[in-house]
Request: fold
Amino acid sequence: MTTFYVPADTAARSVGADEVAAALAPFDGVRVVRTGSRGMLWCEPLVEVDTPAGRVGYGPVTPADAGALAQLAGIEPASGNPLRPAYLGLVERQPFLAAQRRLTTARLGVVDPSDHADYEQHGGWTGVRRALALAPDAVIAEVTASGLRGRGGAGFPSGVKWATVADAAGPEKYICANGDEGDSGTYADRMLIEGDPFALIEGMLIAGYAVGAHTGVVYLRSEYPDAIATLRCAVESARAAGVLGADVLGSGFAFDVDVRVGAGAYICGEETSMLESIEGRRAEVRAKPPIPALHGLFGRPTVVNNILTLATVPTILADGGSAYAAHGTDRSRGTQVFQLAGNVARGGLVEVDFGVTVRELVEGFGGGTRSGRPVRAVQLGGPLGGYLPDSALDLPMDYEALAAAGFMLGHGGIVVFDDTVDMARQARFAMEFCVKESCGKCTPCRIGSQRGMESLDRFLAGADPARELPILERICTTMAKGSLCAMGQLTPMPVRSALTHFPEDFAGGRR
Reply:
């Protein structure tokens, strides 16, 4: 019996992975396992086959290749064979993967996301078993020692947040995983849930034990139907195995997970808006204080972490906080999962130590632009992040270096633009995005973004820059200083970075 691994990840399915799996299944001696994606998106559908030397990959493949795949079973195709161009050799030795340091995403593309036993065979449940053997405060100490910070964008120290919830009084506490991944160019949360959902469940279990919570809620965006189905399947599997429920792994600790689906509001990426949505109300930002750690879901102390943050916790508990902290740089410890998108030759998922430069990511892993033209701008941190010019691509990717340069890491999204991009229109896109996605609660965000878009429309229509741009700057100042949450506060960042680093696009020279 030869085992073939075919991704069931949304990106792979969109280019024919389901059809490839169906074409392989009827052959004698063939077993097809659906996995997540390795993150080499330009190779999808990527098919892997077990060999004595390891998994050999082919990609991209088509259903018409199924017969040759079944016959070759991982043997290097001879010259002239139709599979020769798709043959990749041992997948783990692919330069794109070999240069990474996969800790959070180690099992992506490797395990069957519906099989808790397969997860265990690849190191799963080791972290939660060690956690359950420790006192709760010792678990928090490990997370604190690791230097783990929130991977959703804020970068707040996870150990501090957990300790705050653990110390808070109350008969009930919650763990909330925010999977409302709405930033343009980001897809790591989706890929992790579709490829390794048990890592998220294990991370939530550890967090629950550490702070004294017995209920976890995962909030997913409705645009991720495959991730929703995969996670719900994994939750049911974990319950059936005794990993979730009244007696977690025979420890006497009770914890269960509920999956909630949003309705497409970008603002729910903000923690208090997400809590409002879970509680059945309109998704609007809450004023702080009180903070969710003290007054969160249904008024109870609540840990709110991003999917990647919680999925990183199992490896921290399995290997120790100091082992995780050995990676990274300064106050940015561990690894970060970056997502390459936009006009890039090799789009995909990259997990490396903090401190990697933008150039290493875009040119090294990404291979430069897909168009072959020079890189002109790179947007860091989603639609509210700044535009980095090509002259600054050697900037290190860590929280402090980015902040000092006027940029932000966000959720690790990197969107590449070549030299044909019009940065004035990109600035307008930022304001338009805020107009459409603002919750509308505060005036600077709700009205400011509308006025900012109108100002840029006048400029694009030929208005005098000397008159229009000072108006735009005043709008940006009002939004940054007066908005209730990061939605309005950060919308000026891409606008101002475009004005600062690409002034020629606002002087009529490229119009």
In short: The first helix runs from residue 10 to 13. The chain has four domains: 2-97, 116-325, 333-414, 423-506. The chain is about 40% helix and 15% strand.
